[in-house]
What does this fold into?
Amino acid sequence: MRSQAPLALPPPAGPAHWEEESPLGVRVTAALASANAGFLSLAASLHAARPGMPALGLPAHVLAGIARLEAVQQGLVLPLALYDIRFRDERYWRHEIAACGSVHDGRPATAPDPGVTRFTRTAVTLAWHFAQSEARAARLALGMEAPTQQLLASLPVGALDALAQRVSGAVAARFCTRERFWGLVTSAVRFGQDTAALERLRLLGLQLQGADSARVQQLHRRLRRTTQA
It folds into this structure.
């Protein structure tokens, strides 16, 4: 039987009015702020371990900008995640979830970085919580397609660790090819949750997410026409 533990995360720092305007609610926004802080810390640590090398889909100079931030642990009060684990790819998640139930317990062939594995465990657990009880957050904050959400929601909590091990290699920065977005991320953190910077970042993130969603919907329509022909 699945058991669901509450997300015991502290409220995010930042202006109270931002929390009141969040379409996802304070509790979900707090969870995202915590996860985003963890992702930024991971990006900084990977840069420190291998300076000059790209990681998580981000080029080295973007990672260097993140590593220079002094308030990475604070996180960002945003209605979207700064990371992605191919949440729009139903086939990928169906394959990885099926592999977790195999005789070989679903561990990947190569051992990922321990820091990446720790973060992935947090991210997968949060995605599972959202899929279980926060469908709107799964869709809006993580960009998760409905079939992926249904697959995750059907998992028992005991399968999450093996699943996180398998998908850790797919963790990447959200909108990693959009340097303007990541420039706004570093600016928003550097200037202490500046409201204007956060608003620009929020709007750009929502626009990029909408564009991604439109592309996926167009692909689905094309596939349906192909299969029906």
About this structure: The longest strand covers residues 83-84.
